[in-house]
Amino acid sequence: HARRHGYARSAPVEVVSVSVRRVVARLKPRFERLPRGGRRWPAGTISREGLRAGDRLLGASVVMEDNATTFIKDGWAGRVDAWGNLDLRPA
């Protein structure tokens, strides 16, 4: 400490916190594609569980799921991709 910061205390050192980082080689995760849908969902409340790849959502809508809620603003539209992601864009 004295060498790096120019001073050192004579009191004992107390370790307050320690961080550990570990890097491990892992196999690339496999993502499952959703079944094909292609339906159009009108504005309203939509359950994320029922969405399929290719489904289109019109705003203003609320997409609800267990751990998140997605609001699609009026004038915007959403599309569900093959892996279940919501792609939101101006309509």
Q: Which features characterize this protein?
A:
single chain; 7 strands; elongated; 4-stranded mixed β-sheet; 3-stranded mixed β-sheet; 91 residues; mainly beta
Please explain how this structure is put together:
By secondary structure, the protein is mostly beta strands. The chain has one helix spanning 2-5; strands at residues 40-41, 44-47, 56-58, 61-64, 69-72, 76-80, 86-90. Helix content is 4%, strand content 30%. It has a four-stranded mixed sheet, with no helix packed on it. Strand 4 and strand 5 form a beta hairpin. The protein is elongated.
Q: What separation lies between the terminal Cα atoms?
A: 60 Å
Radius of gyration: 25 Å
The pLDDT mean sits at 90
What is the chain-wise order of helices and strands?
A: HEEEEEEE
Structure annotation, total helices: 1
Strand tally is 7
3D shape: elongated
Strand content: 25-35%
Estimate the helix proportion, in percent. under 10%
- Strands of the biggest beta sheet: in what spatial order? 1-3-6-7
What is the element layout, followed by pairings?
Layout: H1 2-5, E1 40-41, E2 44-47, E3 56-58, E4 61-64, E5 69-72, E6 76-80, E7 86-90
Parallel strand pairs: 1-3, 2-4
Antiparallel strand pairs: 3-6, 4-5, 6-7
